[in-house]
Known about the structure:
- The chain has twelve helices and 13 strands.
- Helix content is about 45%, strand content about 15%.
- α3 (about 90-100) packs parallel to α4 (about 120-125), α5 (about 150-165) packs parallel to α6 (about 180-200) and α7 packs across α8 (about 245-255).
- Mean pLDDT is about 90; it is low at about 1-45.
- Bound molecules: beta-D-glucopyranose (BGC).
- Beta-D-glucopyranose binds next to loops.
- Beta-D-glucopyranose binds near residues 136, 137, 183, 215 and 242.
Amino acid sequence: xxxxxxxxxxxxxxxxxxxxxxxxxxxxxxxxxxxxxxxxxxxxxxxxxxxxxxxxxxxxxxxxxxxxxxxxxxxxxxxxxxxxxxxxxxxxxxxxxxxxxxxxxxxxxxxxxxxxxxxxxxxxxxxxxxxxxxxxxxxxxxxxxxxxxxxxxxxxxxxxxxxxxxxxxxxxxxxxxxxxxxxxxxxxxxxxxxxxxxxxxxxxxxxxxxxxxxxxxxxxxxxxxxxxxxxxxxxxxxxxxxxxxxxxxxxxxxxxxxxxxxxxxxxxxxxxxxxxxxxxxxxxxxxxxxxxxxxxxxxxxxxxxxxxxxxxxxxxxxxxxxxxxxxxxxxxxxxxxxxxxxxxxxxxxxxxxxx
Length: 355
Ligand code: BGC
């Protein structure tokens, strides 16, 4: 081979090598959309599984409880958890999730503030090879990997069943949750599953039906005042989407001297609600054993982070895919069964409920 041919051959080899390595670089920056298994992922520095928990808010009793229970459950399994809460700000929640992703979490657990906006989190996590679990609230229109919650339609049904038993005929007010939260739609669907046949019969009229923007209790108060004013206080029953809103409904009723006279339903079995129930201003709540939810998610999260693929019998459509789902059973709580439910479970202490 002449010198020129040798030089040409070497040049060609170099070129091929450069192109190949350039391609390789591109390939490594384009992370797979399909989540990688842990065996293919780098483990974190201390060797522990690291879970990111992106929360909507910590402004309500239940979410503080979720945070603490989830942290304890993850740590009991020998893993670590980094928690960030966005205070109801969609853009902030996406930024916080990005932060968790860039810090190298192995898996993300998300309580979405906004069911649609958080789809961006799922996309970003998947691009980084991280799988995502929807905690309590469903992330819609995304390839979310797993959804663990309660049977939220059943929550609404339990509320309406309890109230229609007491008020089979009359004027109803529905104080909904945040329209941006998929759960709020499910709660409402459940309520109307029970009310609709009675509405059709002409026994029940829904005289007021509004969402509560951002689930803020003050907005629920304004809604309830509007409901009372529009009906000259002529209302027979109120179903509120949770206990925080029910508390404000009762405050509005109190202002009119009606607290304790009109049945009110809530949900979450918050301590204040349990106290109102035994005192007689709130009729019922729905207890969702958060301990079981937090434990279930922690176990599944750690298994998934280790590379296991979880499938479930139950699937929930999120507008894009059939999401593998675990839905736990909610429990109706009133004055009569307070002791056998929330108190027996240690959710609240007896002396705190009956102050
Ligand atoms: C939860 C409720 C909670 C509400 C407001 C819903 O998605 O399921 O338990 O009260 O959000 O935070």
